[in-house]
Here is the input.
Amino acid sequence: MTGGHAITPETVSLRILAGGGMAGVWADLKPRFEQTSGHRLDLFFATTPNLIQEATSGRPFDAGIVPADVMQDPAARARFAPGATMEVARAGIGVAVRSGAPKPDIGTCEAFKTTLLKASSVATVPESATGYAIARVFERLGITEQMKSKTKAQPGPAQVVAIVASGEVELALFLVNVLTTPGLDVVGPFPPELQEDVVFAAALSADTKKASAAQALLAYLESPAGVAIIKSSGMTPG
Here is the structure.
């Protein structure tokens, strides 16, 4: 017996490509799905460019729950099963500071722009779906050039949290669900006029030999239990 389940021929290990912005969801969802299904999940977390690279590398995987930007890359999309993808979750982008630090005004577009220009430094993940959205916001505000020297690029969400929590960088700009964590105080979401939700979409691999088990995972994401986990992690289901 393993985890209350007998190992049977139907018990499989699924390799899943996963966007790092949903890591908090998976921390709870992975053990619950494994306990419920008897299957095991091998999660490959990465940013959008690295997920595209992994999907097109030829290495096998069974499904992806990834930023929709991944699915918009033709080469990556070809590695997934044809047909519509399933929208799993979405989250807005926000601002956070080190716990206890003063919270700047981001309530209007003009106040947000002023705060960004006054900040000594900001941390984000430029090479990610969230980073691409933030870059579009900078462009809309007309501050792309000014923000280049302030932006301290990080390789992933965990590093954004850590470098701002340590006080090394003043502002964290990332998905609000990721920023809601010990060590940071969330200032709030981007102003509505500038907000861009990052959507996470799911699809089976075109080459999976474990379609039944992989489909069970996607069904679990849409089940009441899966939806509750997504909501509790600060994301909006579907």
